[in-house]
Amino acid sequence: MNLKSFILIILISNLFAISFAQKKLGLYGDYERDTLQGRNFGDFIKPKKTVYNYSFSEVDIVPTFTKKCAGLDNNSDKEKCFGDYFFEILRKRMQIPDGLKENRPIIVVTKFTINELGEIQDIIILESNDYTGKVKNIIIKVLNKMPQIKPAMINNQFVKVNYSFPIKISL
User: Fold this and answer.
1) Any idea what the CATH number is for the domain that residue 140 is in?
2) Residue 130 domain boundaries
3) The organism sits in which domain of life (predicted)?
């Protein structure tokens, strides 16, 4: 037996031993709980589908405030009710401190996501001329305390939806 045959036999036997050990330890096979084959992530479960954020125009049923807009039937009425009630809440709850009185209006463009549970998340200030940052902080606080929202739906499943809006505050 030459040296090449001897090394080949050792390599093959090692591969069988490693394969047997992986099967014995449960590290080989059964990948439905993993997102990457060959890696053990414990109880990590791969999502059933990719999560997308939709716009109001892409969903079957737009999000609504449960108390104010629940009885409406069509999406255009629900969307109008959502916007009207949303800005009504902002006007009532936004209290601008006296120290922010300026000669120019403050404009803040905000975007957020309404998740599958009807909660507001991922609040982003897209654009602002609020140099102090105080108005932005007030808007974020008000958004975090919004009343219950019934989430948007596509094919009878709740989905995430993005909402963006400008606010112009004349002080």
Assistant:
1) 3.30.1150
2) 53-169
3) Bacteria
